[in-house]
Amino acid sequence: MSDTPPSNPPSSSLNELERLRDILYGEQVRSIENRLNILQSRLEAVHDELAQALDAKAAAIEAQLQSHQQQLQAHKRQLADHAAQLEQHAGSLSEHSAQLGQQQQRLDEQAAQQAAQLKDQAAQQATQLESARQALSERSAQILADLSSRLEATQSDLSNRLQAAQAELSTRLEQQSAQASQQTSAGLQELNQRLEQQVAELTAQLNAARQELSQRQEQVHKEQTQALNTAQKQAQQRHEELRQQILALAAALEEKKVSRQELGQALLELGKNLQDIP
Questions:
Q1: Helix or strand (DSSP H, E) at 99
Q2: Distance between CA 130 and CA 50 in Å, rounded?
Q3: Measured between alpha carbons, how far is residue 39 from residues 139, 146, 233 in Å?
Q4: Which one of 70, 175, 184, 232 is at 20 to 30 Å from 26 when CA atoms are compared?
């Protein structure tokens, strides 16, 4: 007996294997697929959140830059207005104008420094966000690769188990078929033996019944023969008695020794005797 599965298994075995596969591994495969879908949804949500956060951060930095520029422009306008006022008092306020020019220069330098710092911060934050996005992408790729390898390993394991189950099922089917064939052969042999035994018993009973019937027929024939002989003897005796009575009656009539009454009684007795004769 071979352990390899048959090349063309019956449709009932295939349906049973499909149902066994679904019972053993269907829930696990569906669970893995649900987990992959949930993880993919989470990754997309995190990606969207990071993109929204990056956009919001860039918008905030841009708003800060615009606010600083507006403040600088406001300072410039204030300084320009103040410079115009100082020009009216140019004579007395020349030194003060120089100081204001220095202050304006310092303010410009500070504004330039702040703008440079804000740009550096924005660049650093953008770099950090890009690094975080790249790290997240790498991590997502690693997770997906890990899940793919696990899924492949699970599928390979499920395939191996299914092949083992198919081989075991084929072996069991062959064993059960062989056992059924052996049981059928044994049952047929036993049935034939029982039938032969019953036929022998019935034959013996029939022979015994025939022998007994033959004996009874012989005995009945003997009894009938004896009864017939006895009846014949009795009939002969009665015939003889009747003949004697008739002869006696005839002699009496010839001699006229009997009366009519006696003759009638003798005829009645003769008639009764005739009726009694079988």
A1: helix 90-255
A2: 10
A3: 12, 12, 126
A4: 175
The residues, ordered by sequence, that sit 6+ positions from 119 with a Cβ below 8 Å of its Cβ are: 65
Cβ atoms 242, 200 nearer than 8 A: no
Using left for φ > 0, alpha for ψ between -120 and 50, and beta otherwise, residue 6 falls in beta
Sign, CA torsion 89/92/95/96: negative
CB 4 within 8 A of CB 174: no
pLDDT at 1: 43
**CA-based diameter of the chain, in Å?**
227
d(CA 26, CA 159): 12
Cα–Cα distance between 51 and 33 in angstroms, integer? 27
193: helix, coil or strand?
Answer: helix
pLDDT greater than 50 at residue 99: yes
What does the pLDDT look like over 18-47, one tens digit per residue? 777 777 767 777 788 888 888 888 888 888
